[in-house]
Every structure is written in C-alpha cells, then in structure tokens.
Amino acid sequence: MNESSLANLKSLLPEFYQAIGETLIMVGVSSAVGIIVGGLLGIWLYTTAYGQIFANRPVHRILGTLVSFMRSFPFVILMIVVMPLTRLIVGTSFGPFAASVSLSIAASFYFARLVEQNLKEVPRGVVEAAQAMGASPRTIIFKVLLSEARSGLVLSITILMIAILGESAASGLIGGGGIGNLGIRYGHQRYMADVMAAVVVLLTVMVVIIQSTGNWLSAKLNKR
What we know:
Blueprint: H1 3-11, H2 13-47, H3 57-72, H4 75-81, H5 83-90, H6 96-120, H7 124-132, H8 137-148, H9 150-170, H10 178-188, H11 193-221
C-alpha cells in the first residue's frame, strides 16, 4: 500500500469510526431481536411437530411454510417491501436503526430454523425421561431441550451474527449506513480500491472475532 492510499484511509478515519458504530448497532439490535423472536418461533416450530409435547400438524405445517418462505425471500427486496413498516416503527427508512427492522425480520426466521434443527439433535430419550418424571412442558423446554442444545445454539447464534453482518453490508444500498455503505460510496462509486480493500479486511476481522468467540463459548458449554 503506497503513501497516497495510506493518506486516503487516514483522512477517512472519522467515517470508518462512524461506519463501524453503525454496523455494530445493526448487528446488535438485529441479533437481539432475532435470537428472542426467532428462538421462540423455533421452539414453537419444534414443539408442534408430530410426536412432540404440543403436537399440532396444521400449526406446524403453517409455521414451517412461513419460515421457509421468509428464509428464501431476497433480503434486498425485503428491505424495500418493509419500508412502510420501518417508517412506522422508527420514523425513517434511512440509517442503522431503520435497516435493523428488515435485518431483524430476516434474522428471526433464519434463526427459527436453526433453533428447530438444534432441538432435533437432543436425544429423544432425555425428553421422555423428563416426561416420565412428570416434568411440565415449560420445564422440558427450558431445563431439558434448551439446556441440552446450548452448545449448538451458541454456534447457531454465531452463524446468525455473521449472516447479519453480511446482510448489513447490503443495507448500504438503501442508505442503511455501516461498513458496507462506506465500501459502496467510496470503493465502488468513486473507484477507491484502497477503501474497498480496507472494508473487506475490516469485515473479515469482525467475522473471525465473532466465529472464534462463538467456537470458544460453544466448547465451554459442551457437556458431551
């Protein structure tokens, strides 16, 4: 990297700091909403399946179809479609908090399927033993299923956060801000390859940090 590139990056440091802050807002808000809403939806999806504690085939089929449909919905189109809802919730369709609305919706349905898959990996015998001891459905869900699946759930949260980070870069296309928006405005529109390279490196470092932290925590929680 030559002196001119270093000078360009140094002059843009305030914008990099702002972009990092906006990205952290989007990832933080969307991850929190996705984990809570998606977690509840995933539990509902799992427990209404055939042979489970709240088995209900029509409900399970409707939930499964909805989750599959929303997961396959292109994110850029989703951002445009939910703009009226975004304006209603945050008062604007621009900025990191506005982008967090569409990111949260996408994250919730994405995480719901991950939760369902994690709960399916819990040995059936563990659940049956809890039922035989008279455990309530609430106890089975929170003390058995989620406890047994906690290591896998941490990895799923890690995957979720990395996916949100990637989608937050796309939110720059409609003024969502963040690191992706910085790359689009300077790296793409102004043909500043040094800025684009810095954006790629920055996103890569963030992914590595998230993945490493998730792997470490998952290993700590793994009881098997």
